[in-house]
Every structure is written in structure tokens, then in C-alpha cells.
């Protein structure tokens, strides 16, 4: 399920967009504090951003330009401007597409689908996963955060990969063990506990705490 981040300061429009996208089976997040939009986009690690041009603290054009210094996350501008110059400015600042208000919901959904189809890699080809600024490099079995990095063992790499791919879901210990056995990693319940302790220790060395939450009697969760 693709995650879409809505950056829109008009609460009514934002709620309508969120409802439209959730009904279309997207995972939706909303920015409600506009003091540092770029930072929030980077920490949310969405698959696509719907970005309004007219924001209270900083224009969407400026946000996208700064975002492009460190991220290629797809951006679709949603704006009241509907001239060719408005569209050109959006594209020049790094936008992937542009749609003017008032828009037709089917057209917006079609444009979102087209951009995601063009930019999202098949799951098996994904090399890096990022959540809350923490990046798991699947190719090199390295986890990094704010310039620091730590190497992972095969078991730690497999466990973290599964948890990253199921962000927002409670993953039971049985699920993890079954997944590992299916991928030729044969561990028992005690070994899983040891690996989870080591993973948390590596995260702590990078300055990351409370990244993996233990739900007593249920399993683990990356919120």
C-alpha cells in the first residue's frame, strides 16, 4: 500500500483529500504543522507528496526545491494557479506533476496512480527502506541514521527488513520466526529475543531509541 503525505493548510480541503485517498486504499498522512515542512516530509518517508503551493510559512515551491537537495520522493503540486507559468514553475522546482484546483477527483487519482507506477520499484527491487530518518540498506545489510551507521548480522538484517516492510502493523513473534524459517534462517524463540536485543543496541548506538515498540503478549511494532 503506497503512503501519501498531504501538505495542505486548508483543513477542509485536507480532510476531503484524505478521505478520497483512503477510500482509494492509500495509506494517508497529513501535515498539520507548517513550521518545517521539508523535515516532516523527510521523516515521514512517503511514497508520494501532494503539495500545495500556497503554504503559511514557506511556499510549496521552496519546500520542493529544498526537498530535492536530499530526496527524490515524487511530488504532485495541487494549486489554485492554473496558468502555463504556474505549471512551469512547479516542474522547474522539482515537481513530478501538477493539478489545478478545483480538480476532478478521478483525474487526481489517475495522476497519482500514473506517478506511482512510474516511480515505485517492485518490492523485490527496493534497495533502501527509510522510516523516521532511519535507513535500512537491504543490499549491504547496514542501518544508518544522521550520518552514523552500523552493520547487521544476517538474522538482524532479515528481522529488521520484515519489520520495516510491515511498519504500522503489530508483528507477532510467531510471524517473525515463520518468516525467517521460510527464508532459511532457523531460529527459536530464545534466539529471536537475543537478536531483538542486539538490534535495539545497534539502534541505540546510532542515537535511536523507542524505534521498535514491544506490545506485550502481541509482538513488535515500528509505529
TrEMBL record:
GO-annotated cellular components: cytosol; protein-DNA complex
Residue stretches making up the OmpR/PhoB-type domain: 126-223
Chain segments annotated as coiled-coil in the UniProt record: none
UniProt DNA-binding residue ranges: 126-223
Superkingdom, taxonomy of origin: Bacteria
One Pfam family of this chain: Response_reg
Keywords attached to this entry: DNA-binding, Phosphoprotein, Transcription, Transcription regulation
Molecular functions per Gene Ontology: phosphorelay response regulator activity; transcription cis-regulatory region binding
Gene Ontology annotations of biological process type: regulation of DNA-templated transcription
Location of 4-aspartylphosphate modifications: 52
Domain Response regulatory: 3-116
Function: May play the central regulatory role in sporulation. It may be an element of the effector pathway responsible for the activation of sporulation genes in response to nutritional stress. Spo0A may act in concert with spo0H (a sigma factor) to control the expression of some genes that are critical to the sporulation process.
Name the record gives this protein: Stage 0 sporulation protein A homolog
